[in-house]
Amino acid sequence: MDFFNYRNNELYCEDIPAARIAAEVGTPVYVYSKATFLRHYHQVADAFAPLGATICYSIKCCGNVNILKMLAREGCGFDVTSAGELFRALRAGGDPKKIIFAGVGKNDDEIAAGINAGIAAFNCESEAEIENIDRIAGALGKTVVGALRVNPDVDPKTHAKTTTGKKESKFGVDIDRAERVFERYRSLAHFRLAGVHTHIGSPVLEVQPYVEAAQKVIDLIDRLTARGHKIEWFDVGGGFGVNYTSLTQAKPVSEHAKLLVPLLKNKPYKIAFEPGRYIAGNAGIMLTRVQYRKTGGSKHFVIVDAGMNDLIRPTLYEAYHHIWPAKIRDIDTPGSRTKDAPPADAEVVDIVGPVCETGDYFALDRRLPPTQRGDLLAVFTAGAYGFAMASNYNNRPRPPEVLVGGSTYTVIRKRETLEDLVRPEEA
Ligand code: LLP
Fold it and tell me: Are residues 71 and 18 part of one domain?
């Protein structure tokens, strides 16, 4: 559940009309709801509270430092995947003891930054990386702790580009090879391999792939323990799906917990999760204005002022984002976030951006109430991997980010300017 609702035929984020933000800040703009962020974070934390689990928000999905501050204040930890994300986590006041550093290709500087920050652990993805971390820790005169990321070889039934836990993936090591890796690095001088990590993919709508993966890892940890390895934690990863197409598409995290908690309860090791999308996905929308209408053959185009550079998910993953006018008529369904409840006079349109690529679209053959130049559209479920994946392609300044809290809002990232575009080139 989120706090984007229609009142008197107008879209509100919490207690502020979306149209007001668009008028005052301009479009395109990302709008986040504080209450939704917090609600989703607490849903996850509460669902896994019986495990005493550490929740490490995956910064990659939506990493504005003001959002991280808000989550850090709630006691949330962070999953970081680059020096930049580590920097953000620390800048936001994140507790280093709740920061884990993931990623298949951490460079030496990133590893050193993690060690110097005193983070909780590195999630390691290869033998070569383990040796490198040991070497760097030695040079810094420190000892560090890490987990081995294993591929449990389960199918998360999601998009090929975001499937990560299969044998053939570039991530982690085969679960069959894991014991050999633990044996080989049993007594490194500066690195203690003491945890197991998985992340099977994203978004995952079913519970079963998690159960299957968790069971395989539990069995692995039992075998490792029998061989005398002391395993201190199991990081189950992230990936919990959210509602893109309907309000019942994804399971609430409590449903995942129903099966995962009994499986993971009373283990002699700690449990961690790394959710990103579940917390941020429906906590953000992107507002964009209709620029022009045109036809091409049998196609009707609605050209908006946001482009694929602002939100790349539709074209990169064929992702569905519900798109609806911010102001509706009495005959329209209010923001039903469903494919099959259009008004009777709906048009079938392609909603496209201004970027010079045919792939620059947000929706193809979509039923939408009639729109005209100047109308404001909301692109829903854009909080995760929305702004985070935005670029300056076509030299478009990236949009601002706004955080709404009740009846006030704050611009938490300014719109980039034309000067911002050339500044790094004018040394
Ligand atoms: N942990 C690890 C190791 C990950 O690689 C990811 C996401 C997460 C946690 C968080 O997953 P989440 O809970 O947010 O699903 N850009 C794609 C998603 C890429 C996911 C990358 N890794 C998209 O827009 O769908």
Answer: no
